[in-house]
Amino acid sequence: MAERVLVTGGAGFIGSHTCVELLGAGWDVTVIDDLSNSSPEALRRVEELAGRRLRFVEGDVLDEAALERAFGDGGCEAVIHFAAKKAVGESCADPLGYYRTNVAGTISLLRTMRRHDVRRLVFSSSATVYGDPGPGACPLAENAPLRPSNPYGHTKLCVERMLRDLAASEEGWRILSLRYFNPAGAHPSGRIGEDPRGLPENLLPGAMQVAVGRLPQLRVFGTDYPTRDGTAIRDYLHVVDVATGHLRALDHLPAIEGCAEYNLGTGRGVTVFEVLEAVRRASDQEIPTVLEGRRQGDATEVWADPALAGRDLDWTAERGLDDICVDAWRWQSANPEGFGS
User: Fold this and answer.
1) At what angle do helices 105-115 and 64-71 cross, to 10 degrees?
2) Three-state secondary structure string covering 84-108
3) Where are the alpha helices (DSSP H) in the chain?
4) DSSP string covering 292-338
5) DSSP label at 186?
6) Is the dihedral of CA 309, 310, 315, 320 positive or negative?
7) CB neighbour list of residue 78: distance below 8 Å, 6 or more residues apart
8) 228 by DSSP, 3-state: which?
């Protein structure tokens, strides 16, 4: 009989791509999602791509009754926890909302897992736990200083530490936290991709919405960074590579005791302007920009040393920036209004 996994936030960008991979690998999948920043159409397309059904519970991880429904008959063997608020700028304006969803929501999930004696967890962390590492610090290994510079990063680090404390206090927990850098792109089919509510917070979906004519121009935050072209440097990682990283982590859980953290990244940093040039190549469209000041909480340069994930999880990013942009453009051009197209 296939093993069962519960995916919180499974209708979201990374969650939906991970569900495709899980179903393809033979897992039975239950998704819980409140659809606050996602669409049920994403899950319908996940089933279409995988050729298999999943089970869906609409609900919030803060609602333990909804979580009880998600665990349901037969329970599950493991949990992948994506459900969270994730916008850096919004977290600076609404820190309490972020702590409530990201930290209290995780506590609610862990309480339910404990009741059902489910102790295998893959947690969606973030490279924002490193904050702004400063010049010359990259690539960042897992033992780099943890100095988040915004409330979103603080919530992710808070959960990581909470998970370590839990695993140290109770036997049987097997927990991996995946610190991924900048997930981007879309499924190569063009059927699922990033579809943020409102104005995009992230660079690539914003650029794609400009390229497809949905937005008139792209705001570029900060052109005076001490980098090769004055714009911030990030490690952009194809969302399908992120999804396969979660499968590798899930497969690795039985081999560990306690808690561990892994970077998911390519090990290559690119600037904002380099991303925009790749978008132009992929879309054959110009991207009008408006240059603005730096955004509160943004770091200068953040890119990964992914060697540990390669060694322990047998995981390496297989796709580069051009693949990311080609697949993102295929998604955006076929779905100019996202899942509402």
Assistant:
1) 40
2) CCCCHHHHHHCHHHHHHHHHHHHHH
3) 13-24, 40-50, 64-71, 88-93, 95-98, 105-115, 151-169, 203-211, 239-252, 272-283, 307-312, 321-334
4) EPPPTT--SEE-B--HHHHHHS-------HHHHHHHHHHHHHH-TTG
5) B
6) positive
7) 3, 5, 6, 118, 120, 121, 122, 250, 253
8) coil
Residue 329 corresponds to which tokens in the numbers above?
């453009």
First to last CA, the chain: 38
pTM for this entry? 0.96
Q: Distance between CA atoms of 186 and 170, rounded to whole angstroms?
A: 39
Assess whether 130 carries a catalytic annotation. no
Domain 4-183+237-265 carries which CATH code?
3.40.50.720
> What residues have CB less than 8 Å from 41, skipping those under 6 apart?
339, 340
Closest CA to 23 of 39, 37, 33, 10: 10
Domain boundaries, the chain: 4-183+237-265
Q: Which residue has the tokens 């990311």?
A: 324
pLDDT digits (tens), the chain, 341 positions: 579 999 999 999 999 999 999 999 999 999 999 999 999 999 999 999 999 999 999 999 999 999 999 998 778 999 999 999 998 889 999 999 999 999 999 999 999 999 999 999 999 999 999 999 988 899 999 999 999 999 999 999 999 999 999 999 999 999 999 999 999 999 999 999 999 888 888 899 999 999 999 999 999 999 999 999 999 999 999 999 999 999 999 999 999 999 999 999 999 999 999 999 999 999 999 999 999 999 876 789 999 999 999 999 999 999 999 999 999 999 999 999 999 86
Catalytic residue among 98, 152, 180, 262: 152
